[in-house]
Amino acid sequence: MIGRLTGIVVEQALDGACVLDVNGVGYEVFVPLGALGRLPAPPAKVTLQVHTHVREDALILYGFATPEDRAAFRVLIGVTGIGPKVALSILSSLSAGELAEAINRGDKARFKNVSGVGAKLVARLVLELKDKLEFARGTDPSATGVRAKPPPAHDGVLGTVQAALVQMGFKPGEAELAVQKIEPSAEGKPTEELLREALTVLA
User: Fold this and answer.
1) Are 132 and 77 in contact (CB under 8 A)?
2) Burial bucket for residue 65 (CB in 10 Å: 0-12, 13-18, 19+)
3) Rounded Cα gap, residues 38 and 35, in angstroms
4) Which of 16, 139, 173, 185 lies 20 to 30 Å from 85, alpha-carbon distance?
């Protein structure tokens, strides 16, 4: 099974299908819409975390910008009534972290504009996935069991910045140290500005 590919995106379609050139071999990979926008622009190489989906009549590759998104995809296709196409549609609208937050809050409105997801399916998602997406909130998505991360050390805006850093791929400890450094001058600043400051600290 293919678990990861590194190459250059040479073709991209509106349905999320793209061709990744890996040392002269073109792999067709289906990627959530918007995910490619978070990856380096061609001709820079990109790395996709890949889920290999095997059917009787086909072998299909699904690619994701982060291991968390791939893990969320695998959780989603385990829900009755959700196949790869619908799971990809959900992750085109919500990152793994956003999906975890929506499920934990029971925020059904976040799924309103997701293609192929109706009210009954949303209710099933909220019921079946409760506490099953905690890996997207800072724990290791490759673990065999789902573990909840420790509660954030900061509340409010700083807690949001810390969670965002973890979602972007930084280790929880790195995110915590960055937030500690910007905390003294954080009062009154918007989340976006604080996130930029934290990224500068981590650069």
Assistant:
1) no
2) buried
3) 5
4) 139
Domain locations in the chain as residue ranges:
4-64, 67-137, 156-202
Evaluate whether 163 touches 170 at the Cβ level (below 8 Å): no
State the average pLDDT over residues 33-37.
67
d(CA 15, CA 36): 12
Q: pLDDT digits over 143-158, tens only?
A: 333 333 343 455 567 8
Superfamily covering domain 4-64: Nucleic acid-binding proteins (2.40.50.140)
Quick one: fold of 67-137?
Answer: DNA polymerase; domain 1 (1.10.150)
By CB neighbour count within 10 A (0-12 exposed, 13-18 middle, 19+ buried), where does 196 fall?
Answer: middle
Structure tokens of 24? 């002269």
pTM of the model: 0.64
Cα Rg, the chain, nearest whole Å: 18
Q: Which of 55, 47, 59 is nearest to 9 (CA)?
A: 47
